């Protein structure tokens, strides 16, 4: 079969952004997704591929720029896949992300939200307190590469600096590269994980073969010089080991609720600390908690929402599928003097809630599921008679899918929604929605 011929460059006017941060336009009767294009622009683009229903392309020249276009701060922008929206000013990023959530509600859930909250936002640079950097030795490219994946490729984009990372690491990528490059096992280190709390920061070096004593000494010395607690990881999370005895406890505070949360260097936490504070406060506000309320917190993790809610409610029951996070949540409750929070380990992708909750009654629930959503959980909440649900989502499509069931079949009303800008400069969209149902 003869390969389909890809045409030369073409010109297109861009209408909007899609969920991947690409401009959306139309050419020859088809939708075309154009990397690097912004709404309102006229661009010359190069075709990257053609499908039956859509085409893809990349900007070659901006003929009529958007007034919201700006120069990217980062020299790696356009190659590194970590950021896709540095060329769009921050307020316009929020508008575009809200548009993506609105469109998901309209087209997937057939819903129109009556009340859109102002976006929850924080710092747009230097915010990222969790990250995984890839490492790979590629002799044809000069040796060790350290950075995020390239845009549109699985290759590693070598970084000298990252403006979105916490500056404790973002400004030290060259030193980190030199460290890894000097190890005897440098070709067996695929990834370095970074985690930072309000005070301490940590690096976890994953390795595919044993590190030498000299390698471990080099890691420990790097941590002492640059202020990192250093760890190694040979396999799963249970293999994380401290290097040089620097077993620093990481913590972040939620001052509005007089809560401090401890976490391990590989534990899941929300990536943007300041935005997380505002997001938790908004969730608690939307729940309208009283001292007599009984609350459910599903996918509760280490207690990010659970413990603040416990400061306002009579009882909070947190459920999470990862037993290590539940151990961490229980420890955090104890350390904060909170005795009205209960926790259980359960797979919330399985129909277990009815048996787990039994005859216990709950006034409201919060859920913060992974990208796959929480269809089984929301169905269980409806069956259990929960009247008020706050749903925090990192995937507008699965949020809209679950919202469709809640409203059209579960008897709820979509009362309010808004975006949470957890990942500025990137195409990732976080959202929060409130669902209510009469008694």
Report on the structure:
This protein folds into three domains: 10-69, OB fold (Dihydrolipoamide Acetyltransferase, E2P); 95-123 and 251-436, Vaccinia Virus protein VP39 (Rossmann fold, 3-Layer(aba) Sandwich); 130-196 and 201-248, OB fold (Dihydrolipoamide Acetyltransferase, E2P) (Beta Barrel). The chain has helices spanning 90-109, 167-170, 173-181, 213-226, 273-287, 306-310, 323-335, 353-357, 375-384, 396-408, and strands at 10-17, 23-27, 30-35, 42-50, 54-64, 130-138, 143-147, 191-196, 201-206, 228-233, 240-242, 250-254, 259-263, 294-298, 315-320, 341-345, 364-367, 388-393, 413-420, 430-436. The protein contains ten helices and 20 strands. With 439 residues, the chain is of the alpha/beta class. It has a seven-stranded mixed beta sheet with strand order 16-15-14-17-18-20-19, sandwiched between helices. The chain has a six-stranded mixed beta sheet with strand order 7-6-8-9-10-11, with helices on one face. Strands 1-2-3-5-4 form a five-stranded mixed beta barrel.
Quick synopsis:
The protein has 439 residues and is an alpha/beta fold. It is built from 10 helices and 20 strands.
For the CA atoms, what is the radius of gyration?
A: 23 Å
- Low-pLDDT regions: none
**Helix-strand string:** EEEEEHEEHHEEHEEEEHEHEHEHEHEHEE
Strands side by side in the biggest sheet: 16-15-14-17-18-20-19
**CATH architecture descriptor text of the largest domain:** 3-Layer(aba) Sandwich
Helix content: 10-25%
Largest sheet at a glance? Answer: 7 strands, mixed
Give the CA-CA distance, first to last residue.
63 Å
Shape: globular
Tell me the structural class: alpha/beta
- How large a portion of the residues is in β-strands, by DSSP E? 25-35%
Instruction: Count the beta strands.
Output: 20
CATH topology call of the largest domain: Rossmann fold
Question: What's the total helix number?
Answer: 10
The overall pLDDT average reads 95
- The figure for the number of domains is 3
Q: CATH top level of the largest domain?
A: Alpha Beta
What is the CATH superfamily label of the largest domain?
Answer: Vaccinia Virus protein VP39
